[in-house]
Write a structure and sequence with these properties.
By secondary structure, the chain is of the alpha/beta class. About 55% of the residues lie in helices and about 10% in strands. Helix 4 links the parallel strand 7 and strand 8.
Length: about 1000
């Protein structure tokens, strides 16, 4: 076998091995992306209806009261008298007698009996719970315009005895300056920020008094709505940890202790007031909740934040013992482990949270400790299953097996497990959360009134029919469900959307409906949701049936407008998985108001819509349906007589919110059509699809300009953030020109290689430049002949041998990024430059042209592969195939990877003829190490998150909002030290390469004298 034949066989085998490795890389990339879908069973609802609204029945004046002389009953009576006083007219007089019947044991049921007639009402109950419920029911009937005599009869105990609310907007200052930018995505409410002071005495007494009045009003309102528990934020802020194991935690002179005592003294009256009014108080905290000294104490004592160690939790349970002894009014603690960190922390205060409870053993150790403490202290602990994305317990919120792995066997009577009713976050189209149907623990169901992902409750959004169906299904499946937790304000960023603050700012009455619905259904899951909606409309807007009924009719249409307008149904009603995560069903509106323009989301969304029953046009039609629903709602409400409304301001607010919704849905309708037709063009190459996209683009841009002009800077109705969408439009507009650039470059690159092929066997080699093309072809495919192929070349050919591949590389990368990503170019070209300089330095006085010919030739081949992919519909089409076509993606990665590695194999092979195989390998490894080291150091110095964000902004691969809200590295769980690890690996390669590249003295050789 000749040397040439042997080398050829080795080259073929090497190429096959590289292709096999490339196929493996393609499989790994596909697995890492994990893009797949599976059918889902979207949330259902009971049949939607509109109540028959009749004239309001005037209530009687309450002329005589005979009720127990307790503060709790007195506050309930205040609500009844206020309701009667707020009625537009009254008829007659009535007396009210409330009697508490004697019992042999404490009674907690809120059952009661109402007897008498319109002039004399008599309430009998076994407990104060029943007595106050009766009075609040009478007040609700008055506000609904119903005859109070309709309540006469026996009333069984509420179906769910625990009905908890968040803290609303208590203690939150409605400062317009904090909402103006619209880009504050912090989840911190900043409640009581005006009360806290950084220095002694730590409390602003005037602000505290104002906050107490705010709080008292919220409690009264919540009681009237039927709630009997409240979640109050904070825990470690109120604890001195004097009795902690190994304590005290705070050293003498540490102001954390003084702050804890001051805060506890300030807020104990808040908790005692709730207790006085019959509401339970649960301190709401993330775990781990920390201060600087507390973290140091835990690490000193346990060696680390060892959350799997049962003894670790004794510090926290000792803190609860301390709190419960100091303030007996507290009823327990509510714990979340799934979200923590800076987005939830308040700047300037050394109280923070950390994601450390991330394993099954850690959760179980924590719950056993807290439950044991709760049992011993006659308190309760509520544990939320909202653990999304956190380690091994990351999917216990949505996965029945994970739920059982974490909570199975923990059966403490003091433990209540709280879970959102949706299989994920509070989105439309998600299935019912079936983990609420399992478990031996006591359970609570979470609802959100101000739907954060559906524009923060700024659009009409009547969730009653859905709530009722969900509760009825869950209660039929699990008799251990005993409560609800309704979020009246909380969830998501506080200051990125409209400035609506519950009971104090903005059009909060709009989402008050969902609060009232959730409470009514918790008391009676068979309640008529249409009646509740009509009662809400009568309470806040009008007594006139001719106005109440149209408002109720509009609200009955509100879900269609939301479900079709803010979601693309074929995508939303599937369970989609990607990158080890389950993206939410909205995605094209990225949390929370950012209209996204990234290829990953939009291309996958198109592919799912294409393959759905209605296809692309069916998916587009949902936008028009939503607009039609919103138009109907607007026309229905606008047709009401303005004089029948309680106030002109309320009517104006209602119409304004419908105008805002209609404008937004029209914008979304145009954008939906544009992105789906764009995907269709990339998919089919159809000129008609391109023309449709172009028309949609013009329509969208016109509507976007109108939307921004109308609502940008509006605190009540803020414009959507269209930055990412506009970036996507700008990239899409360049796709066709980039495709033509790619075709021209492809033709030139192929011509260069064809000339090289022909010149290798014909006299064409004598033409100017042909020798360079010949050397490029030969050296790239048979690098052992690189040296001979470059002998005798003219200067022009040598320069072409260098310039052609370099220019083609720059041009290809520029086209691939639509001339928009200088970050990408800088990293790629910087790496190549570092490689080239190091190799050139080692080559020294030897001829560099063989390695230039080999490397340059393979670079041309590698560029040809990329240009082929870009030549159809430009960079957009390139990424479309990457995200949606696994076969094309795998083939492309296999060939591209093989050619990329062949660059270095060919370069080393070409050098080996000059310096030997070992030193040639060293030259190449040194170059590769430098090519990795230099960009990694730069990225590390800049910061990985900053670098990735800049790169993603220019290429638009992942949601633009990812960096602004969650952080790309956080969301994808990329360690922040990754560039330093890469730099270290590059340094190792560089070091090994240098050792191999240096001349080695032969064993036994003597030094010359």
């Amino acid at each position: 076998m000749t040397t040439a034949t042997r080398r050829g066989i080795v080259a073929v085998v090497t190429a096959l091995i590289l292709l096999a490795l490339g196929i493996g890389v393609g499989v790994v990339v596909g697995d890492a992306l994990g893009i797949r879908t599976e059918p889902a069973a979207p949330m259902q609802s009971v049949a939607t209806s509109v109540a028959q609204v009749t004239d309001a029945v005037p209530p009687p004046e309450i002329a005589e009261l005979d009720v127990p002389a307790t503060e709790r009953v007195g506050v309930a009576v205040d609500e009844l008298l206020d309701a009667v006083g707020d009625a537009t007219e009254r008829a007659g007089e009535a007396s009210l007698t409330v009697t508490l019947l004697p019992t042999l044991r404490p009674e907690t049921s809120d059952a009661y009996t109402l007897e008498g007639d319109a002039t004399a009402l008599r309430v009998t109950a076994l407990s104060e719970n029943g007595a106050t419920r009766a009075i609040y029911d009478l007040a609700a009937a008055v506000r609904a315009g119903d005859p109070i005599t309709d309540l006469i009869g026996e009333h069984e105990s509420s179906r769910l005895p625990l009905r908890m609310t968040d803290l609303g907007a208590v203690g939150v200052t409605p400062d317009p300056a904090e909402w103006e930018a619209g880009t504050d995505y912090s989840h911190a409410s900043k409640a009581f920020a005006d009360v806290f002071q950084p220095k002694a005495p730590y409390i602003d007494e005037a602000a505290l008094a104002e906050a107490y009045e705010d709080y008292d009003g919220f409690l009264r309102h919540s009681l009237a709505n039927g709630f009997n528990a409240v979640a109050f934020p904070g825990f470690v802020e109120f604890v001195t940890f004097d009795d902690a194991p190994g304590g005290p935690v705070y050293a003498d002179g540490d102001d954390h202790r003084d702050k804890a005592l001051a805060l506890r003294e300030a807020f104990a009256p808040f908790w005692e007031r709730a207790d006085e009014l019959g509401l339970k108080v649960f301190l709401r905290t993330d775990m781990l909740a920390l201060t600087g000294p507390l973290e140091e104490h835990l690490i000193d004592r346990y060696g680390s934040l060892d959350t799997e160690n049962p003894e670790f939790w004794q510090t926290y349970t000792a803190g609860l013992d301390e709190l419960y002894e100091a303030v007996p009014a507290l009823d327990g603690v509510l714990i979340r482990i799934g979200e923590a960190g800076p987005v939830y922390d308040v700047g300037g205060w050394d109280y923070y949270s950390a994601l450390e409870v991330t394993t099954v053993d850690a959760v179980r150790a924590m719950l056993e400790a807290f439950a044991g403490q709760a049992e011993a202290s006659d308190r309760e602990v509520i544990f939320r299953t909202w653990s999304v994305g956190v380690g091994a317990v990351g999917d216990m919120h949505t996965n029945a097996d994970s739920y059982e792995a974490v909570l199975g066997g923990i059966d403490s009577p003091a433990l209540i497990v709280s879970t959102k009713y949706t299989l994920g976050d509070f989105y439309t189209w998600l299935p019912l959360n079936d983990t609420l149907e399992q478990g031996s623990q006591r359970r609570m169901v979470e609802f959100q009134s101000r739907r954060e992902f559906e524009n923060y409750g700024a659009f009409p959004n009547d969730l009653g029919a859905e709530y009722q169906w969900a509760l009825q299904q869950l209660l039929a499946a699990n008799d251990r469900i005993e409560g609800v937790w309704v979020w009246t304000q909380d969830g998501g960023p506080w200051r990125a959307g409209p400035m609506t603050l519950y009971l104090k700012a903005g059009f909060w009455q709009l989402y008050e409906l969902n609060t009232q619905l959730a409470s009514a259904l918790a008391r009676d899951p068979s309640a008529d949701v249409a009646d509740v909606t009509a009662a809400w409309a009568r309470e806040w807007f009008s007594d006139d049936p001719a106005t109440v009924e149209p408002i109720a009719t509009a609200m009955a249409q509100s879900r269609e407008a939301i479900a079709q307008g803010m979601y693309i149904q074929p995508f939303a009603d599937q369970r989609v998985f990607a990158i080890g995560l389950e993206p939410p069903p909205m995605m094209w509106i990225f949390e929370w108001d950012i209209l996204t323009g990234d290829s990953a989301v939009l291309d996958v969304m198109y592919a799912i819509a294409r393959d759905s029953e209605g296809g692309v046009e069916g998916a587009i039609s949902g936008g028009a349906e939503a607009v039609a629903a919103a138009e109907s709602m607007r026309e229905t409400v606008a047709a009401t007589d303005a004089s029948t409304w309680r106030s002109p301001e309320m009517r104006e607010a209602f119409l304004a919110t419908l105008d805002y919704e209609l404008d937004t849905l029209r914008l979304l309708d145009a954008y939906r059509a544009m992105i789906l037709h764009q995907g269709e063009w990339h998919d089919t190459l159809s000129p008609d699809a391109y023309a449709a996209w172009d028309a949609d683009r013009a329509a969208y841009e016109a509507l976007a300009a109108e939307h921004l002009e109308a609502y940008e800077g509006d605190l009540d109705y803020p414009a959507f953030n269209l930055t990412a969408a506009q970036l996507g439009v700008e990239r899409a507009e360049r796709d066709q020109p980039m495709a033509w650039f790619a075709r021209v470059l492809l033709a030139l690159a192929v011509a260069w290689m064809v000339i090289g092929i022909l010149a290798a066997r014909t006299r064409l080699v004598r033409r100017p430049g042909a020798a360079a093309a010949r050397a490029s072809w030969i050296a790239s495919t048979r690098p052992w002949r690189a040296r001979e192929s470059t002998l005798g070349m003219l200067d022009l050919d040598r320069w072409l041998l260098l310039v052609i591949p370099a220019a083609l590389l720059v041009a290809t990368r520029a086209v691939q990024t639509s001339f928009l990503s200088w970050t990408h170019l800088a990293v790629v070209l910087g790496a190549w430059l570092a490689f080239a300089l190091v190799v050139r330095l080692f080559v020294g006085r030897r001829s560099p042209w063989p390695v230039i010919a080999a490397v340059g030739g393979v670079v041309v081949l590698r560029c040809i592969v990329t240009l082929v992919a870009l030549s159809f519909t430009g960079p957009g089409g390139y990424w479309f195939a990457f995200w949606t076509d696994p076969v094309l993606r795998s083939v492309y990665i296999a060939v591209a990877f093989a050619l990329f590695v062949w660059v270095f194999v060919a370069g080393g092979w070409a050098l080996s003829a000059q310096v030997g195989a070992r030193r040639a390998t060293g030259y190449v490894l040194s170059g590769v190490g430098a090519g990795l080291l230099v960009p990694a150091l730069v990225v590390g110095a800049i910061g990985l998150e900053t670098a990735l964000s800049a790169w993603n902004d220019e290429l638009g691969l992942l949601p633009w909002g990812l960096a602004r809200i969650l952080g790309i590295t956080t969301y994808l769980e990329i360690p922040a030290e990754t560039p330093w690890v890469a730099a270290g690996f590059g340094a190792v390669l560089l070091g090994i390469g240098v050792l191999l590249a240096l001349p080695w003295r032969r064993r036994g050789a003597t030094a010359s004298v």
